[in-house]
Amino acid sequence: MVLIVDDNQENVFSLKTLLNLHKFDVDTANSGEEALKKILKNTYSLIILDVQMPDMDGFEVAEAISGYSKSKDIPIIFLSAVNIHKKFITKGYASGGIDYVTKPFDPDILLLKIKTFYRLAEQTRRLQEMDRELRDEIEFRKRAESRLKDNVAELESILESIPQVAFTTDFDGNVEFVNQNWYQYAATRDEFPQCEAGDMCQYIKSAIRAQHQQVHEVKVKKLGLETFRFYVLYLTPVQQHGIASKWVGILTDIHEQKIAAQLLEKRVQERTTELVRTNQKLEESNYELQQFAFIASHDLQEPLRKIQVFSNLLNEKYTPPSPQAQGYLEKINLSAERLRKLIADVLDYSNIKGETSFSVVDLNGVIERLLTDLEVVIKAKGASITASPLPTLEVIPVQIRQVFQNLISNALKFARKNVPCQIAITAEYIADKAIDAPAVPDGDYCRIAVQDNGIGFSEDYAEKIFEIFQRLNTSERYEGTGIGLAIVKKVIDRHHGLIAARSMESLGTCFIMVFPVRQTTPVEASQQYTI
Fold first, then answer.
1. Is 75 left (phi over 0), alpha (psi -120 to 50) or beta?
2. CB count, 10 Å around CB of 319?
3. What is the spatial distance between Cα 387 and Cα 110, in angstroms, rounded to a whole number?
4. What is the radius of gyration, based on Cα positions, of the chain?
5. Which helix (H) or strand (E) is 229 found in, with range?
6. How far apart (Å, rounded) are the C-alpha atoms in residues 429 and 515?
7. Which residues form the Histidine kinase domain (predicted)?
8. Residue 91 neighbours by CB under 8 Å, 6+ apart
9. DSSP state, 459?
10. Is the pTM of this model over 0.70?
């Protein structure tokens, strides 16, 4: 199981969804304290840990994890969007992390890393299980020798039966017994298998001095072969009356697992290098986008205001202008106003992610205040707007108001001529996150529909209308920038919801939205707003 630790629920949701799609079992924690509690209760093969968190940051959590005997070997991947300097990356590795990934990241590369470290953790776990099995087997042999005292023959029979190379030594390290597998590596009992580096006899003496079990990774070759293979050498004391009277040595082949781990590590290093280059390009691109937003919000709006001011001065000071001049001035003002709205909508679209705090909101209050603000337009259109009782949902207050304002404004804008505009807002609970899910009294999701009797459109364009700058009607007939529904779609995605449009030309349009009743971020009971 993979544990994701991040206080940002958007990051948790996207990463959990990615891992679930690739058949990973995923658990999540919203803080370092919650993560430590879960680690004590559950078993994880990999931890993906955010650095920037309140109370306990990722480095503190990693150090605490490495202090637990149960979790000290769990691989940790750090994620950070802020702490990307070399000193933080160094600190991440020093805290116990095996990798440090900066945001934004390439999901495919991150997924490869996760798969690699997950596989390595599972291989380590299997080796540990093998180690435990061998420990249990050796412990069994200890008990057998204690019960049978000097019945060495039975112990030798047991060692002869296992598939590994096995041998026993006396208190001083002199070989007493070897099983038949020994002779694949040494010609005689008194001759130790050849190691590429070091001497097996030295390992035995080291264990005798330490007087406790020792485990060594060694490279050994069989007789008649030139290549060395990776093995694990277990040296375990046989206690008799509290004293190590004998030593049991077991040599286990781990060559395939070791080579696979080395290849995976090399690939991870290569991918990491690619990821660093990609992140550098993304940082450059993000900087350019920030510069564009600054120009749009300041440099573009300032000359636009001057165009409007000076055109108004011309209209007022040099009066009465000729009908043709007055028409030109009106076109200048209309074009300037449309450009101002376009800039404002683009900024709204790009800043949707700025507000991230979910709160429990009564949607009835949202609609009530919105209709009050649109009262003049509603009267001018002769529109009738009805709303059934709406639920209380966990949403971002300002953004959910944007959704309803854009949809209602669209319905008013695209009303049919000489036909009274009628808009109906309805809501119901549903069981699943699907547009056509069946209604249930206490579902985890809420479906909200905004229906009008306007000009409608062909459903061939049902997906296209949510793309930025897409318009199905000319700006001469219907004002607007083509960004409103793109903002709606982006806000609903931000709320982990769905939206779809059903329409027929000249018969009206119905926008159907699906929201989770509760987001994954905990909300305090006192944080309830009516806007």
1. beta
2. 8
3. 46
4. 35
5. strand 229-240
6. 10
7. 295-519
8. 59
9. G
10. no
Range in 159-163, 429-433, 515-519 the model is least confident about: 159-163
Sheet with 214-220, side-by-side order of all strands: 175-178, 165-169, 243-253, 229-240, 214-220
Q: Which two tokens stand for residue 172?
A: 């001083």
Q: Which residue in 455, 469, 443 sits closest to 505, CA to CA?
A: 455
**What are the backbone angles phi and psi of residue 450, rounded to the nearest 5°?**
-120, 105
Q: Report residue 133 as tokens.
A: 């099995």
Contact 17, 60 (CB under 8 A): no
Q: What is the mean pLDDT of residues 432-461?
A: 91
Pairing of strands 214-220, 175-178: unpaired
H helices, E strands: number in the chain: 14, 18
Residue 422 tokens read as: 């009628």
Return d(Cα 239, Cα 213) in angstroms, integer: 11
Q: What is the dihedral of CA 349, 350, 351, 353, to 10 degrees?
A: 90
Give the 3-state secondary structure of residue 238. Answer: strand
CB 278 within 8 A of CB 200: no
Residues 6+ apart with CB under 8 A from 511: 407, 449, 450, 488, 499, 500, 501
**Which residue from 453, 455, 457, 430 is spatially nearest to 517, judged by alpha carbons?**
430
Buried/exposed code over 244-258 (b: 16+ C-beta within 10 A; e: otherwise): bebbbbbbbebeebb
| CB-count burial class (<10 Å; 0-12, 13-18, 19+) for 18 | middle
* Alpha-carbon gap, residue 6 to 13, rounded angstroms: 10
Helix axes 397-413, 484-494, angle to 10 degrees: 150
For residue 34, give both structure tokens: 């919650």
Residue-level length of the chain:
531
Phi and psi at 122, nearest 5°, equal -65, -35
Amino acid at 61: V
Q: Peptide bond preceding 320: is omega within 30 degrees of 0, i.e. cis?
A: yes
Lowest mean pLDDT among 131-135, 432-436, 469-473: 469-473
Query: Cβ(346)–Cβ(507) under 8 Å?
Result: no
Alpha carbon of 172 to those of 208, 289, 420: distances in Å?
Answer: 7, 73, 103
pLDDT digits (tens, 9 = 90+) for 167-218: 999 888 899 899 999 999 998 988 889 888 878 888 989 898 888 899 999 9
Mean pLDDT score across all residues of the chain? 82
